[in-house]
Amino acid sequence: EPLDFSGVWRFRALFPFASEGHVVTIGEGQTLCLRSDPVATYVGLRPGRLYLQYEGLNPSGSFKDNGMTAAFTHARMTGAKRAACASTGNTSASLALYCAASGLMRGIIFIGSGKISYGKLSQALEHGALTIQIAGDFDDALRQVQEIARQLGIYLVNSINPFRLEGQKTIMYRVLESLHWQPPDWIVVPGGNLGNVSSFGKAFGELQQLSLLSRPPRLAVINAQGANTFYELYERRGLRWNGGRYDPQVIQIYLKELDAAARRADTLASAIEIHRPVNLPKALRALEICGGVVREVSDQEILDAKAQVGAGGLGCEPASAATVAGLRRLVAEGVIQPEETVVCILTGHVLKDPDATVAYHTDDRALFDQKLGRRGVKRATYANR
Ligand code: F0G
Description:
GO terms for molecular function: L-serine ammonia-lyase activity; threonine deaminase activity; threonine synthase activity. It is an enzyme of class 4 (lyase). Its cofactor is pyridoxal 5'-phosphate. Keywords: Lyase, Pyridoxal phosphate. It comes from Thermogemmata fonticola. This protein is an alpha/beta fold. The protein folds into 2 domains: 220 residues, Rossmann fold (3-Layer(aba) Sandwich), CATH 3.40.50.1100; 94 residues, Rossmann fold (3-Layer(aba) Sandwich). 43% of the residues lie in helices and 13% in strands. The strands form 2 sheets. It has a 6-stranded mixed beta sheet with strand order 1-2-10-7-8-9, sandwiched between helices. α6 packs across α7. The longest helix has 17 residues. The protein starts with 31 loop residues before the first strand and ends in a 14-residue tail after the last helix. The structure holds ligand F0G. Ligand F0G binds next to α3, α7 and α12.
């Protein structure tokens, strides 16, 4: 009975939309919440206060599988024969794997030009999804795939799909379970399309309604500086959910400014290189439920933090390390206290994006310059080099 082996479907009573006969699962969600004292020291927390939720352990190597199993199950219930997504890499890897493993659907993937990491692209190709590179970035790809999916009746698995977010709620259930249902003070999560933060807030709100959680952890969302729309709107322009009476004008004005400046999202953390997060309103709601904050971190901070995670005996990709970098900032600011308990969500495996990692550690000057030096990033400076 495969349902017993999935760290997602163990919690199906908390997202009861699927009949068991439809469930598509390949063992996703068997992940670990691990204490990390070396990284705690790096960010300025007391030993024993930092946990890393290792979502790289999923079948396709990222947290996306938590949502993909739920979306696929729903797609199967609708009788869909084709599923599509736009992706910075991980959603496409996950979609391609679930298509190949289930044999139920043909996968169609839209990627932006140039930025997807080879680890992720190789997964999409190897699992046999139709992979289309467009002239444009992720935001363009998402607009195009939404239009095409609507016209042709293709099932869309991007995180605007609410069933995906239902599956991603289980990341929080597993964190709470690991901590014996003693909620941590903070959960730190990278912000891209803002699906994770939206689903985490929903999970906490529902657990409170069910009297399974007395006080929700606070959420800290970390943007990359080169893709910081959420930070800009929430922290700089004061946009709030405000019981659903948020001002969508503020979002529109900001996006128009981005267009006028012809600014492209740009960060080494390619997974979160997104200017127009589709879940922005839901994310605002999540931060209202949890008393959240948003921060931005530079590519340098991200790579330095990533190397600390690696040296500490875990591994993650750049977008995931944004959490550790952001946490370090929040401790330095005094927003998070050294004795508070924090969980950082490591969303993707270290093997997802090896190029930046090798460039960061190499002694080959040309390789370093080509990948990092020309972007103003400095080499590894930490002790184990
Ligand atoms: N971390 C990783 C490793 C990701 O791949 C993504 C998103 C995020 C964080 C951000 O999560 O969108 O819920 O805020 N990757 C998407 C993709 C966009 O296409 O793979 P979010």
